[in-house]
Design brief:
The chain has 2 domains: 231 residues; 143 residues, no CATH class. The protein is 63% helix and 6% strand. The chain has a two-stranded antiparallel sheet with strand order 1-4. Helix 1 packs antiparallel against helix 9 and helix 3 packs antiparallel against helix 5. It is globular, with a radius of gyration of 23 Å.
Amino acid sequence: METFWPLVLSALVVLVTLLYTSWLDIRDRRVPFVHWLPMVVVGGACTSWLLWQTTGNASLVTGYLALLVSFLYSDYLDNRGRTDSLYLTGYYRKQNIGIFLAVALLLPALSWFILLPSISLQLVPWYAMYAGILSLVSYMEYRGRFDENPKSRQKRDTVADSVGRWYFVLIILVFAIVSTTLFFSASSWGTSATVVLFLSIFCGIFYTFGRMHLFGGADAWAMVFIAFAVPVFPFEPILGTPPLGFLAFSVLVNALILNLATPLCIFIVNVLRGNRAPLMYLFFGFPVKGDEIQKEWGFVMEDFSEKNGVISRRFIGFWDAIRRMYAGADRIYTKDLREHPDEYQEELSLYRRAGRVWISYAVPFIIPITAGFVTALLFGDILLAVMTTIF
C-alpha cells in the first residue's frame, strides 16, 4: 500500500488537535468549537488534494467539500447564541445567514450538475429537497423561531424544536442517496463515491447523537472531523489495512475496546470498597461525600426528595436517563452545581444531609478516541486482528 503524504500531514494535525482538546476537556469539561477549525481547514485541504490527485474528478472533490460545509453550516444554525469569538451573534449573526446559506447551496449545485460530465435528472429532486430543507431552517433561524425567551423561560415551540432536532437527518439522507446514485454511474464518481457515502453515514450518525445529547459534543466533533480529515489510512498499519479501509471506523472500534477498561476498574474499586448499588451502577459510578460533590466531575445518578423530614432516594433508571439526555433537562451535572450554586440550593442541601451521593465517572471519551486514533494509525483495527487470530 502506498503512502498518502497529504493524509500524513493531516494525521499529524489531527493528533496535535486531539491531544490539546483532550487536555481542555479534562481541565474544563468543555472544548470550544474554535479549537477544531485548524484541524478542519488542514484536513479538508489535504483530503481534497488527495482526491484530486487520485481521481482528477472536480465533481467528487466539490461533493466532499459540500458535505463538509453542510456540517459546518448546520452547526452554525444549531448553536444559536454561541459566544465563541469566530461565531457571530445577534443582528450580525442573522445578517450573515444569507451568505453562509448561499455557499452551502452553491457547492452541491456545482458538484451534482455543473461539474458532472452530463446532467443527471435523477439528482434534481434530491437537490430541491436539500435546498428546501436548508432554506426553511435558515428562514426559521432568521425569524427567531429557535430562540428562547430567558425572561419568560418558555422553551421554543414544538414545531421548531422538532425541525431543529431532525432536519439534518434528511440532509444526510440526501447526500447518501446522491453518492449512491453517482456510485453506479460510471461516467461520474464511480467507486470513489464510497468516500462521500461513508462520510455521510458515519459523520451523520455522530452529529445526530451529539445533537440528541446522547454523545458528548466534543466527542462527536472529534469523530466527525477525524473522518473528514483522514478518511482512509495514510499508510499501511502493522496489522494490515482493514477491508473497509475507513480509518474513523477503526478509531471508534479501538476507542470502545480501550474504554472497556474504565468500567471494569470502577467495578473492582467499588467491590473492594464495599460500595453497594444495583449491578449496573457499580460499573459506571461511585459514591462521593454529599458536602463535597461540587468538587467532583460527573452527573448525579440518584433522585432525592424529602417528606416530613425524611429523605428518600432512588437510582435513575437506564431509560429514564436516556430520556433526560435526549431532552437536555432534569440531569444534574456537578459542573452546574459548582458554577451555579444559587440555582441548586435545594439539591445541595439534600446532598449534604444524604451523606453520600452516587455520581457517574467523568473520564472524557475524547481520551480513548485519541488513543484509538494512535493505535488505528500504527496497528490498524484491534478487534479485526483479534477475530482474525481466533478464527
